[in-house]
Structures are given as C-alpha cells and as structure tokens.
Amino acid sequence: MGKFRVLVKGIVQYQDSYLAVERWYDDRIFDPYQWEFIDGEMEFGETPEKAVERIVSEKTGLTVQVNKPLYTWGFTAGEICTSGIAFLCDAQVDEVILSEELHDSQWVPKSEITQVISNQAVVKDIEKAGLTSSFDLDDFGKVDLFIEPMD
Prior knowledge:
Order of helices and strands: EEEEHEEEHH
Largest sheet: 7 strands, mixed
Oligomer: single chain
Shape: globular
Structural class: alpha+beta
Radius of gyration: 16 Å
Number of helices: 3
Helix content: 10-25%
Strand content: 35-45%
C-alpha cells in the first residue's frame, strides 16, 4: 500500500516584497542553487496553518501570520502520493535568520520576482499564486476550507 504526505508552502510577504530563499539541490546539475519559496512537510497532528507557521519559523526565524490559502498541488513519486497547500503569509519584520539547509535569502518586489526565480516549477507556483504582473493576490478572495463529514 502506498503512503501519503502533505507539504505546505509559505509565500511570505513583508510590505510589498516576497521572501525568496536559495536552496542547494544537486551538484550534478548545471545550477545547483535554486531560488524558491519556503516549504516543508506537515507533522502528524498539525493543522496546515500551524505547519506552515512552524516551517517558516524553523527555516527563516520569522514569525508569520497565515493570511489565506492560495492554491493546492499534488504528485506521485514511486509509492508516495504527495499533496500540498500554498499559503500567503504576512511577516511583521524583515530580518531573516536562515537555517543551515538554506544558502541565501532576499526580499523581492512583485515586479522583479520572475527575474530572480528561474526554476520553472517555482515560476508556475508564482503564476498560481497570482504574483505575476497580470494577476493580483487580491483577485483570490478569501477561501473557506470546509470538509463535509463522511456518513
């Protein structure tokens, strides 16, 4: 039987900029350092909102307020089925203290974000999140997550 895991992604906003972090991927590829948003795996018993708060804090030292979910994604690799939820998060300060797994960080204005991030998977995330110039985060009204009880 296959296994399931849930990832959460924090797209952290401070004033008019978004936090991009640089992570090492693989020394066998042309560009081993890639810019992306903060993500990680939920732990058993956590809500998605608490998981994204924890992950952002662990990886950047920032305390964030979860604003709203932006989009979901999923994929299967081998016997593991992964689902993910991306959240818009608000930071009150811009001082970042990176964990050891991250190489660098920068606050990027919305107008420059596609110039900084070149990873095509993350560029698709940017489009889904409404961070390109043709969309606006305000276009994504509030989302109510409601799970209907099973009979």
